[in-house]
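Check my protein:
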Amino acid sequence: MLADRSYMRPGYPQQGTSMLTWMVCALIAAFVLQLATSSWDLFPLERLLVLTPAGLRHGRVWTLLTYVLMHGGILHLLFNCLSLYLIGRELIGPLGSVRFLGLSLSAALLGALFWFACHFNQGGLVLLGASGIVAGLFVVFACLFPEQDVTFLAFYVLPITVKPKLLAWILLGVELVGFLFGELPRGGFDQGIAHSAHLGGMLAGWLFYRFFYARNGLDLATSFAWPAWLRRRPKRTAVTTPKSRLELHQQASLRSEVDRILDKINSHGFGALTDQEKRLLDEAKDLLSRR
């Protein structure tokens, strides 16, 4: 229903970027502390916060989340911070700060659990970096804006424009190949990339969209459908008086116009709407919520 969509609610945040800013600043500050304490024997911050199979087996459960604060170098940090900002600024509006933070923590946690499940009996391995969060956020972005053109620089030189849904499938294929043939024991081309953590983050993003976002009837979502043999039979309702032809025609016309505006939001974002289209959505929300 139109009134249930997040951007039709009075509290819909249009410019909420504070949580995103705090997250990026936290990654930068943690990296500075990581460098400053790298040579300290009494307080090795990186050793306390990164995720290792042995550390988790010995009860360092906090490392399931704190590993995202540590990075393997300045380029690793810059890539994750830039990706987090570019994707996050598109999501924090429709999701809100609380859901955005919850999605990020879920992607970090599920990525850590996937990685640990693959390497629980191996020593000397370390997981660090926020790449799993970035992967999860991108999956949600691709689900919300599948047809919105995205331009990025391949190898930081060649500009390429592609739709998010296609890019998400390509990313999934690359991560699966890297996981099966590189990260798994005796992999043929292991590059030290935690593909399992990326896959866990992507799964968290899809689960968030499918069951916590789309399931609630929010923005451009398809509701979950149980198998036919598990569905409850609909209850019989009392027969109501038919509406007049004029009223039915007006309601159908209104719904058609609302569908056009929602398609525009899907393709170009909420900011592309004119003032008249925004007013029409407000009026339609009030009208349809009473029916």
Remarks:
- The two ends are 11 Å apart (CA to CA).
- Residues 1-17, 217-226 have pLDDT under 50 and may be disordered.
